[in-house]
Write a structure and sequence with these properties.
It is built from six helices and no strands. By secondary structure, it is an all-alpha fold. The protein has one domain. Helix 2 runs parallel beside helix 3. The longest helix is centred in the middle third of the chain and has 16 residues. It is globular. The termini are far apart.
């Protein structure tokens, strides 16, 4: 994955213990051993890349019909994570590993600002998540 996102670098990626620990716990969430997970480590320790990019691609590889919402503090960062995830999922090695997972031709691109297409994995900013939740609550008969 590192080579896909950082082409042209002559360095390889050797994950530190905390990256391995995050991946282990995220896989426990995927298989249902953990229902909740809080990752609390300092900035610039690969939380976003591990969770919002690699883990999403991994989840969709194992379950192409999974519904995933990823929120970020800002729309630009959410779009970057989405583009990075799509780049990974478009890579030859990923398609070989997960042949059943196919990206929709239309998806969440940096130019697109309308409602997300149903068949594509999308990233939402916190404001978009809040608006989506408000719409879902008001359109359903549930009282929260």
């Amino acid at each position: 994955m590192f080579d896909t996102l950082h082409q042209g670098t002559d360095r390889s990626f050797d994950p530190a213990w905390h990256v391995r620990a995050m991946c282990h716990e995220l896989d426990n969430v995927r298989v249902g051993e953990n229902k909740r997970l809080i990752i609390n480590i300092p900035p610039r320790c690969l939380k976003s890349v591990t969770v919002a990019v690699a883990y999403v691609a991994y989840l969709l590889g194992h379950n192409p019909s999974a519904k995933i919402i990823v929120a970020s503090y800002g729309l630009d960062l959410a779009r970057k994570h989405s583009e990075d995830c799509r780049r990974i999922m478009s890579a030859r090695w990923y398609r070989g590993m997960f042949p059943e997972t196919v990206l929709a031709k239309k998806g969440n691109t940096s130019e697109k600002k309308s409602a997300p297409q149903r068949e594509a994995a999308v990233r939402l900013s916190p404001l978009e998540v809040l608006l989506l939740v408000m719409v879902l609550i008001t359109s359903s008969s549930m009282i929260c």
